[in-house]
Each structure stands twice: as structure tokens, then as C-alpha cells.
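# step 3/5: fold
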Amino acid sequence: MRVFLTLITLSTVILLSGCSREPSEPELRQAYEQSLAEANQLAIRIGGDRMKIGLQDFKKLSCEQPDQNQQKQYRCDIQVKLDLPLVGVSTQNGKMTVVKHDRDWVVLSNN
């Protein structure tokens, strides 16, 4: 019986830790690229291919949960190197809020 209770406890801890872990850098990059692709669709419709923004580099600096009640939401500091229309290459620091949706992270806001 004791072994059974230990297994239940370990399983619960593993499941709960999986729900609350912050996004990795590759997961954040994927969410950012998806958000950028959506923005580029609009930019291309307005100004053509020359208005497309390119992502050259992406770095996760840190993440934190803004609200402990929102277990699947994180506010992350990031650094991106973008190829911007009319400007050229620019490295910028910013923040993005992401939420876990199914198996992927989705951007709620960028700034």
C-alpha cells in the first residue's frame, strides 16, 4: 500500500510540474515566429513583400508568472534581431506574454 501511495504522489508531482513550467527558448521562438507570420501577412497585403519583417535571432532572457492564479501564463523578457523594412537590421529588447494552449505556447501580447 505504501508503494502505491508513493507512486500516486510522484505521478501527481510530475503532472503538476508539467503544467506550471515556463516556456523554453525554442517554444518562445516558435510562438514569436507564428505571431510574426500573422503580422507579415497583413504587412504584405498593405505594402507588398518589401514590407515583410525577418527574424534573424531570438533570445529568451527571463520569464515570470504575472499572476500565480494563471498557471499557464508567463510574461517573458526577450531579445530579437529583426530585419526591418526601410530600417535594416535592428536588435531590440522587449516583453511578450504567452499562454499554454494545448501543446503549444501562444502570444497574447508583444511590446
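# step 4/5: annotate
Strands lie at 54-64, 73-84, 88-101, 104-110.
# step 5/5: archive (pending)
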